[in-house]
Design brief:
Chain lengths: 163, 704
């Protein structure tokens, strides 16, 4: 009788405590961070808005100050400089141009300029103007807005950081 | 007592003892069991499991204490235990959004979590070890977690000047200033300017009562369903300054009646020479000439006009001055002529420059505005208004004060109503119990209070005097962020020392230059030592950059330096003397101390240097991607065709070395030129000169 009582009480107790304490990890809820920082309209579908995380939002800021003049068809000041250039620079969201390029390659061409990696010298070097964080942020922004969408390589090579 | 009964009683006693001792045991067990099941311990166990599923387990668990983790910074009164559950917060490999919360790393920002703690920026209760206590408003703690979309507000608590990384906060501060919120409220970091709304003393000489009625009823005609603001039927990015005051028919009649019968001191209208006037009147293209002058003077740098192209109507032009599409149907002709001649005579603090007009220019431009920038149906929806009765005027006078109009507008003889609304300078640090929610059903938090108050002031307090603004969701977030950043002195005592105050630089030159500086309002577009507008180039170091002779020519006849910009320097029709005074001052005073203008002499440049420079420009560095020479090249940077006459060689060398040290955040990339390359490029650029007289636009406009 006594043991029965103990068992019953223990079961009740553990069940009660267990259910009250157990809170699900916040996986089901939409991520509140997703649109917290900034967003960018999808160039191909104006209805769709691409949410940007912190780093991507910083990249957007840098992009609209330094890069937009040649890598977009419309700029904050009006017409774009893109049509003046030969070869024509790819648009920022052109996934077919940027998706095949690795992060390291993009980091190099931004830091050292086009002529350093065998591309057109029309692309200047930004390594002394932008910080490494700025450059990484711009790459993150490009990856976020790429059309078709960018897929990170499944097996990144040995991690090499310039920082 | 019989033995049987005794035995029964003792059995009962035994049973009671047994139950109570079991109960006692259970009670004793509750506490260790509950302790074992604490949420933070569960997160610790989950984190270990999570870390074991990652390739860098060792790194992730390296400095994990497996107990309550606390960031303690005594000098800032920070005691934060958030890292007890948010264990991956400093792990760079956990930044990805696929990492489940609460283990995700903090984004890479300039402040390290270990040096600052969490609550300083994110709010909430740092000491708590339960999820709910830490994040939400509880009986013991009124400061809930700040929603991440408002996190830039926390940057603004210490950084009182704008940071490039906080666009939302900057936009909010800009809106608070642009919408004249300081008219009624005291705000942190925003000074009350000399003029908020126009002086209405002489309004009767400017507009009709019918126009006042329409404007008071709704300062915008339509607000589109998506919340975008439409002024006079044209889409505009910016909210008009004048908000909607929810006036009824009687009040509209009363206020418009009162304003239109104010005793005015209208000066004598300007009289043109009648003989010349008759000659101008005979010209068939009078209005077209006016339009040409209007365009040549670049009025659209500050004012916008609605332009319909391919069936789509858009506002084209600047937003420094008011939109002018229908201004011809708004203002009276005599007022317009007087205003254009001398805006400051009507409004002493007007930002409009005082142009040098020739009588003919003045006449044709006025005629253009009166005949082309009109809309005959503008006032068609206004009921017929008779001369206002005495009762109407009296009610209007009362309403003017009751609605707080005198907070922003001035009428001679009516006392100003500064601080008509509540003081909001420390709104961001208010706790829930300090806010008045009334009977509203909104969430009891500071954030929802501010949002509701701005969206619809009546939703919090049905008797609110605050007018109605219609902001887009983005602007609402921006304004809320800016208000949340106004926290007075931060609650954490140590933080007070860390505040980086906003700079309010002033530049008020005296003498002949000062007079012209005020007359032409240079500072509305240009910036001088941190003071002034940002529309046009910063002129702080203009004396180091430009040659004096070029400045004189440019001021008299501003050519196009950046062909793609919509906004150009207006044609002020300056005299040579005025241009000389301005150029003399700029070239002697506005210089950078870090540059010796005599240090680079063009005589030392040799032809081989020039040809090397040309080659570097065209081949190695391909400067033509952004700069135009002649007719080829890009137009991100200025046109360099005449740079040899324009810039000082020392400036060019300094610029090529480090452009951002001369103009912060300028687009020109800083390149790794060698000294030889830099000299060669300077030598080449100094050979680029355009000679020959340039046809002045002023002469072109007069058709001479």
């Amino acid at each position: 009788m006594r043991s029965k009582l103990i068992v019953v009480l223990a079961v009740l107790l553990s069940a009660g405590v267990g259910t009250s304490c157990r809170e699900k990890l916040a996986a089901a809820k939409p991520d509140p961070l997703a649109r917290a920082y900034d967003s960018e309209p999808d160039a191909n579908d104006p209805q769709r808005v691409i949410p940007l995380n912190y780093q991507q939002a910083q990249g957007k800021r840098v992009f609209y100050q330094y890069c937009v003049w040649c890598h977009a068809d419309a700029t904050p000041a009006g017409p774009s400089n893109r049509s003046n250039l030969n070869p024509t620079p790819p648009l920022a969201n052109d996934g077919t141009a940027f998706n095949p390029l690795s992060d390291d390659f993009l980091r190099n061409i931004i830091t050292l300029g086009g002529s350093a990696v065998g591309k057109s010298a029309l692309m200047p070097s930004w390594g002394k103007t932008l910080s490494q964080d700025d450059i990484d942020a711009v790459i993150a922004f490009y990856r976020a807005i790429a059309q078709p969408p960018y897929q990170a390589p499944a097996h990144p090579g040995p991690k090499y950081s310039v920082r | 007592m019989p033995a049987e009964e005794l035995g029964k009683a003792s059995r009962r006693m035994r049973l009671a003892f047994a139950i109570s001792s079991v109960a006692f045991l259970v009670v004793l067990a509750v506490s260790p069991v509950r302790d074992y099941l604490r949420a933070w311990k569960r997160y610790e166990r989950d984190y270990i499991r999570f870390a074991q599923s990652r390739p860098d387990t060792k790194q992730l668990l390296a400095d994990n204490p497996f107990e309550i983790d606390q960031i303690w910074i005594p000098q800032m009164q920070v005691v934060d235990r958030c890292t007890t559950c948010h264990q991956g917060i400093t792990q760079p490999t956990l930044e990805d959004s696929s990492v489940p919360q609460p283990f995700r790393a903090h984004p890479h920002i300039p402040h390290r979590v270990r040096d600052w703690g969490c609550v300083i920026c994110h709010r909430g209760q740092g000491l708590a070890t339960e999820v709910r206590d830490a994040h939400e408003t509880t009986l013991a703690w009124e400061q809930p977690i700040l929603p991440v979309r408002y996190i830039q507000a926390s940057c603004g608590i210490c950084h009182r000047s704008d940071l490039p990384q906080t666009p939302r906060l900057n936009r909010g501060r800009e809106l608070l200033a642009a919408l004249n919120c300081v008219g009624c409220h005291r705000l942190q970091g925003i000074e009350r300017p000399a003029m908020l709304g126009p002086d209405l003393t002489n309004i009767a000489g400017k507009v009709s009562r019918a126009w006042l009625y329409k404007w008071l009823k709704d300062p915008r005609t339509i607000t589109a369903s998506d919340g975008s603001v439409v002024v006079n039927g044209y889409e505009n990015e910016d909210e008009p300054r004048m908000p909607k005051f929810r006036l009824n028919e009687n009040e509209l009649r009363a206020l418009s009646g009162y304003l239109s019968t104010l005793p005015t001191e209208t000066p004598q209208p300007y009289r043109f020479d009648p003989r010349e006037l008759a000659a101008w009147e005979r010209k068939p293209d009078l209005v077209e000439q006016g339009e040409t002058r209007f365009r040549q003077m670049f009025c659209t740098t500050c004012h916008s006009l609605a332009v319909t192209r391919a069936g789509e109507t858009k506002l084209i032009g600047g937003d420094i001055g008011p939109e002018l599409t229908k201004v011809g149907s708004k203002v009276k002709p005599d007022w317009l002529t007087a205003w254009l001649r001398n805006p400051q005579a009507y409004l002493p603090h007007a930002q409009m420059p005082r142009y040098q007009w020739s009588d003919q220019d003045l006449y044709v431009v006025t005629r253009y505005i009166e005949s082309k920038l009109t809309d005959p149906t503008l006032l068609s929806d206004v009921p017929e208004l008779q001369a206002p009765t005495a009762a109407e005027s009296q009610l209007g006078q009362r309403l003017f004060l009751e609605k707080g109009c005198a907070s922003c507008h001035v009428i001679k003889g009516v006392a100003s109503q500064a601080d008509y609304g509540p003081d909001l300078a420390s709104l961001g640090s208010k706790t829930v119990s300090q806010l008045e929610f009334g009977n509203s059903r909104m969430a009891r938090t500071l954030v929802s209070y501010i949002e509701a108050k701005i969206t619809n002031p009546l939703s919090v307090n049905a008797a609110a005097r605050m007018p109605q603004y219609s902001l887009t969701p983005n602007d609402l977030e921006a304004i809320t962020s800016a208000l949340l950043s106004m926290s007075g002195n931060p609650a954490q005592a140590g933080l007070g020392n860390l505040i980086l105050p906003a700079q309010h630089p002033q530049f008020r030159p005296a003498g002949a230059f000062g007079e012209l500086f005020e007359r032409y309002k240079c500072y509305v577009c240009h910036r001088f030592n941190g003071f002034g507008g940002t529309l046009a180039p910063d002129l702080t170091f203009e004396g180091s950059r430009a040659q004096r002779k070029w400045m004189v020519d440019f001021l008299k006849n501003p050519q196009t330096l950046r062909p793609t910009l919509t906004f150009r320097m207006p044609q002020f029709n300056m005299t040579t003397e005025e241009a000389t005074v301005l150029a003399d001052y700029l070239s002697t005073v506005m210089q950078t101390p870090n540059m010796n203008l005599e240090g680079v002499n063009t005589k030392q440049f040799t032809p081989p240097m020039v040809s090397l420079g040309k080659q570097l420009y065209e081949v190695k560095y391909q400067c033509q991607s952004c700069h135009t020479i002649g007719s080829t090249g890009g137009y991100v940077g200025p046109n360099l065709s005449n740079v040899g006459n324009w810039m000082n060689p020392a400036w060019l060398e300094g610029w090529l070395k480090d452009p951002q040290s001369l103009v912060p955040e300028v687009i020109e990339p800083r390149r790794a030129f060698t000294d030889e390359e830099r000299t060669a490029l300077t030598a080449y650029l100094m050979t680029l000169k355009q000679n020959g007289p340039t046809r002045t636009t002023a002469a072109a406009g007069r058709g001479q």
